[in-house]
Amino acid sequence: MNTFAYEVHHPELLTLRAAALLASITTMAMGARNVAHVAFSGGATPRALFKLLATSEWQSRIPWARTHIWWVDERCVPPGDPESNFGMAQALLLRHLPVMITHRIRGEEHPWQAAYLYERELVTGFNLWAGALPRFDLIFLGVGPDGHIASLFPGSAAVAEQKHRVTVDNAPAPPHARVSLTLPVINHARNIIFMATGANKGPIIKQLFYTDSDLPAARVRPTHGHLLWLLDEALQKAASLPLLHQCQ
Ligand code: 6PG
Q: Is the pTM of this model over 0.90?
């Protein structure tokens, strides 16, 4: 069994826990560097987190004025498209924030142009010298039932990309063309938090936690950072994971 740090929560508590971790990590980043860089994934799981962060109660808990919001990946569609990860964040969270610094992946461009532009934005946003990797304070990841993360899909060359910070991959499900951070960037983060919910992901979590898998999700191993899985109870049961502890 792989030794992944994980917590099991009721779905609503899982969202609260993710928001609390975002608040503490960004606050610590302010104390250390007076800036924070956070990257969000797309898909359905982050929706509840975005809605919670948009509430007046939570808005003041995140130092948004100096927190740079990035995306782990994007579908190659315009920002107003229902499939856009930026569009989802804009609708559920960003439009409610009085101040924000966003670096969206320009899904409306040609995929490789969008990847080039995003890589350039990483270089300027993190003030990187040639070849250096951006060090995110926090990256939120989801996991697909096939073990993909970000837009890095099993068996694709994009999973093995080591040279570039941003790449293009093709998703089995439409919209097929996607732009994604690469694993070297993801694994360079100070903190990586997976949020995974639902019994349907039981098989993939079992495979990741109990076997030596080479799936993209198994390759998420921060080089010098922290990795935490936040799972809901349905998924813990479906994956037959021991209950290390459960927050009531
Ligand atoms: C995307 C995401 C993707 C997502 C997983 C899990 O653009 O779709 O970045 O990697 O995190 O597919 O998606 P769910 O949260 O919908 O299960």
A: yes
